[in-house]
Design a protein that fits this description.
The chain is an alpha/beta fold and 446 residues long. Helices cover 69% and strands 9% of the residues. The chain has 9 helices and 7 strands, in the order E-E-H-E-E-H-E-H-E-H-H-H-E-H-H-H. A 7-stranded mixed beta sheet has the order 1-3-4-2-5-6-7, sandwiched between helices. It binds guanosine-5'-diphosphate and magnesium ion. The site of magnesium ion has 4 residues, from helix 1. One of its GO terms (biological process) is protein transport. GO terms for molecular function: GTP binding; hydrolase activity; metal ion binding. It is found in: Membrane; Plastid, Chloroplast outer membrane.
Amino acid sequence: MSRIIDDVSYPAVLLVGKTGAGKSTLGNLLLAQPYDNGPFQVSADMESVTQECGTAKISIDGVIYNIIDTPGIFDTQLVTDKILEEIAKTIKKCKYGIKAILFVLEAKRFSAEQRGVLEGIRNFFGEGATNYIIAIFSHATKAQIYDRDIMRKAWNQPVCSFIEDIENRWGISPNSDYFPPDDPTHQARLGEIKAFISSMRGVYTTEQLEKSIQEQEKARRQKEEEEERKKQEHEEKLKEIARKEAEEAHKRKVEQMERERKAKQEYEENLRRKQQQEAEERQRQMVEKLKQEERERKIQEENLRRKQQQEAEEQYRRKLEQMRREQEREEELRRQREREWELRRQREREQELRRQREREEELRRQRAREEELRKQREREENLRRERERQEQQRLQEMYRRQREEAERERMRRMEELQREQERLRRFQEERRRQEERRHDDDCRIL
Ligand SMILES: Nc1nc2c(ncn2[C@@H]2O[C@H](COP(=O)(O)OP(=O)(O)O)[C@@H](O)[C@H]2O)c(=O)[nH]1
Ligand SMILES: [Mg+2]
């Protein structure tokens, strides 16, 4: 059994690789011990494998080394801080440095898992460790163990590139079931590994590991910081998205409210317009009615005026007719009288012939009477004309008054209509001002 490491007194040969790769088996074989019964514990059951490092001394070409078997630290799932600490602690005890790092990997296609293990080794030991890595293929077929070329031909491109990186330092872990320990092939494979160990120049020092650990710590911190920064950025982004969504929602709400307010305003506007139209329609009907009444009234007045005028004219005409008839009668009477006078004069002339002197006298008297009669007739005529004139004046005066009365009535109605129109205008003006004030208020609320 390997010892729990207190102190490493010789340069170390590290066995690294994933759990089950065959590290402990190789360690035992290098120590010329049965592969499953040497100082290092071999187990097919991964759970029971020890998680501590073990060491054993080995002499290669007369030089003593400490072979150190490590737990499967680089299987990504099983690695823990405790195991890494254990390895680091063990390596720090290697005061003579690490001569070689035997990276044991199964001889199959270079899988993502193996690449992960290699990355883990490089990260843990640092880039400087590449110069000390020797790749050892385990679980090889009998033919591969027998012939290195067969093994080489089985590699894929990543394996080739990896082997190139480590300057072709590679070996094969022999299988005792195919080639027993005393078989030359078995010996040859172990001999190659030992030759590589002996040929390594210098050692990987604990300082290098320290530096690597510090770098790892730094990288880890940077990674953590980066992750923290990304996390914060992500949170910021989430917050920003949430804020934008909230803003968007608020904006949508405001827009919705604005739409509702506009719809309400529009509805109120339509209602107001409709009411105004109705009021205007009522107003218009009222004005129309008033106009119609005015027209009817004017027609009535006109009819009345015409009737009155006709009546006055008729009256005047009748009066004139009457006066004419009276005049005719008077004329007739006058002619009658003239005839009578003529007859009388005739008789008088006849009598005159008989009574010359009386006749002359009578003629003189007659002339005087005629003169008197003429004067009287003239007076009567003047008097009649004067009466006619007065009557005409009276009728004209009466007609003028009637016309003035009708004109005043018409003016009064006109003024009433104007006052009504003024009231309507003020009513519209007041309504317009109310709308403007209402409109101002809405703009202030917004
Ligand atoms: N066929 C074959 N089996 C191996 C080889 N190396 C190890 N084993 C088996 O693999 C299992 C794990 O081996 P072990 O040395 O404990 O692996 P470790 O976890 O890397 O130390 C054991 O059952 C071994 O017998 C090998 O080269 N060929
Ligand atoms: Mg082991």
